[in-house]
Amino acid sequence: MTQTKLPDVPDGQCFHCLQPLPADGGYRVVLNNQQHQVCCYGCQAVAETIAQQNLLHFYQYRDTSNPLQIPLIPEELQQLTAYDDEQLQQQFTRVDGDARSINLSIEGMTCSACAWLIEQHVSRLPGILQVQVNATTERVNVRWLPSTVKLSAILQAIAELGYRALPFQAANQEQEFKQRRRYFVTRLGVAGLATMQVMMLAVGLYFGVVSDLDPQLRQFMWWISLFMATPVLLYSAQPFYISAIRSIQAGQPNMDVPVTFALLSAYGASAYATFINEGEVYFESVAMFTFFLLVGRYFELLARQKAVSAASNLVKLLPAIAQRETAVGEAESVAVSHLQVGDVIHVMPGATVPADGELLSSSAGVNESILTGESRVVNKRQSDTVLAGSINQNQAIRVKVTAIQQETVLASIIELQDLALSRKPKLARVAERMASKFVVRILMLAATTFLIWTVIDPAEAFWVTLSVLVATCPCALALAAPTAVTGAIHKLNKAGILLRNADVLQILPDVKTVFVDKTGTLTTGEFKLQEFYIHQKPDSLSFSESKLKALVQALENHSEHPIATALRHLTSERATLTDITNETGFGIDATWEYESDKSVPVRIGSLRYIQQWHPDFKPSLNQCQVFLATDDKVLAELHVGDKLREDAKATILAMQTAGIEVIMLTGDRLELAEVVASELGIKQVFADLLPADKLEKLSAAQQHGAVAMIGDGLNDGPVLAQADVSITFGHAADLARTAADVVLLRNQFSALDQFRTITLKARNILRQNILWALIYNIGILPVAMAGFVTPYIAAIGMSLSSLIVLVNSLRLYR
């Protein structure tokens, strides 16, 4: 059988999509027994699918003259659609029960109107659970039911609007930004050169008015100006036209509508004056207006890149190749994308762990700074979790893969960052609506201005109206919120603080009451068994210490409470349990088969839980907080020690100094909680609480204002969900299941003070941006309507107002 001859592609380009390869060379795909370079997992998987379907002739006959116009999937695959393939979807989707979620990269998105249009259109599809569009990062997060709607239908729905949607691959993000920068730089270059030339001619024309310029020379200079301004209008200003058309299509006119109208009107009127050799020309205003607008857009693009590059860098640090253990115990090199759950991989010293897994070696030291920002080495023991992105520090280790690609904790972190960027705080949403309404009012005021000046001075009516359109363009108002929010999230991410809900930026500064859990929050959560006190009674049901430790160990293996971690490795002896029940806030209930033909009901947990069986029981040791009992008697008391966080006292004092009341909510006994509260300076303590009790206390406090809750995110789920601002600490492995608004990755209590400082600064900058934008737009309006602002001065003023907003927001990046 003759093999299909595949065409060559230029060096440095992806064989499949013809886009530039990433700096590391990308990935490989074998077609017709030959290796070809591709830019990402998606292209690799699609190319493999094309080969499996015997459709390699797709590469023979496609037109490669315009890489952006070629189809990424052969026509024959359009019905099958490669993106609906289950194996392919594992590369870039996350499974969430019956649903899936995906991040799509959108080409052609320019503003919030684009985001609104995509969100409304896609959300109408059956089976769509959630659509969140982030105009800042040009991404869409979609959650859908695969049983109802296919991924190909979602991609097709976006394509119908004129946008190109592909699964987001962070490895390609740098190339995409380079293309976008090139897109703006070339247009900026054309506009800048034209502006300089047209301005020189404009100066000549201005002085010609004073010195009676020859009419023929003036006409010649007009024609030269027309010639220089035309490329600016047709090429450089193209992004504004596209954005304006899409915003009108969305029914939400954006700031590019008056911009487009002003540019086309000024150029049209000037061109008409040139043709009939009568009137005035403002070609320099067209060129200068376009140039300054592009400068603003270019700086906005750089701000976006700075904001999202941190998350992108996380993925780019992951290796492309892993060392997988074979059946004979040797290591083979395989692509990370080919790893499966259950594979055993070898990680050499200094190498990056490619996937989440369980440590099989006896010990390891890893650097998790890529995840938490904390550079110190974290010591791991056998069976501990090691995370993708961690760097192995000491000796070679063996790891059993438990999560790959989009299921890893690293992917969860990136998804949380994307979600935070897509969720605008209330003030940002208000500013966005104001900008949209402002555009409509500008158009109405411009029409009114034209009518008034037609009566006052018909010759100036058009140019005064043009100045109004240009000067009052709400660019600064549209940029005010997104730039500040993006900057704040970037700053928080650098500090190891993950924000899931951007509304926190607005709410937190108003919080005057903070509730804190004790265990794992005010304490380090590094528990150790301090005392194991056995209740000995001379009866038929007495057990040895090793047997009781085996029982405790078996029970605590079914608990998620932080204390349980210290009670899971007490002895090598094993206990057999059946009918296990985990009662949140109380403990674990089970049946213990202590001999082959004998069993007894047992439970382990809090004092209140044990007293349900033994109401008259009083602890023998005051410091004990864990109790073990059968339905007949109490077997043992356990004291599990934990130390206070070193930075907790200073942070609590700082909050109290700032006028914030700190209240402890804990399920521990009052005598234990009061010791901790006294040491930390907490004046109000509510102890011995169940989750429902905590919820009641917090709800009551919410009647008097916004409150925050700081907990470990496990037993405090209901109260964290109820709080206006919920904050959790903990290892990154807990991120996938946390429900908090904020996750402090560094596990330091002092991060709260840093979080509050950044949030206050972000809100101040957000308010300053909106205030400045409103002052400028409202202030310039009467001046422009009165005819005191020429079009080119209006262009400079509008551009400067936008740059002021951008520069103010960039203070958050310092």
TrEMBL record:
Main location: membrane
Protein location: Cell membrane
Bilayer-crossing regions: 188-208, 220-237, 257-275, 281-299, 438-456, 462-485, 770-789, 795-813
CDD domains given in the database record: HMA, P-type_ATPase_HM
Domain HMA stretches: 100-166
Keyword match Protein biosynthesis: no
Membrane topology reported for the UniProt record: Multi-pass membrane protein
Cellular component, GO annotation: plasma membrane
Any one GO MF annotation of this record: P-type divalent copper transporter activity
Annotated GO biological process: copper ion homeostasis
Keywords: ATP-binding, Cell membrane, Ion transport, Magnesium, Membrane, Metal-binding, Nucleotide-binding, Phosphoprotein, Translocase, Transmembrane, Transmembrane helix, Transport
PANTHER family tied to this protein: ATP7, ISOFORM B, CATION-TRANSPORTING P-TYPE ATPASE-RELATED
Similarity remark: Belongs to the cation transport ATPase (P-type) (TC 3.A.3) family. Type IB subfamily.
Official protein name in the record: Cu2+-exporting ATPase
Species: Pseudidiomarina maritima
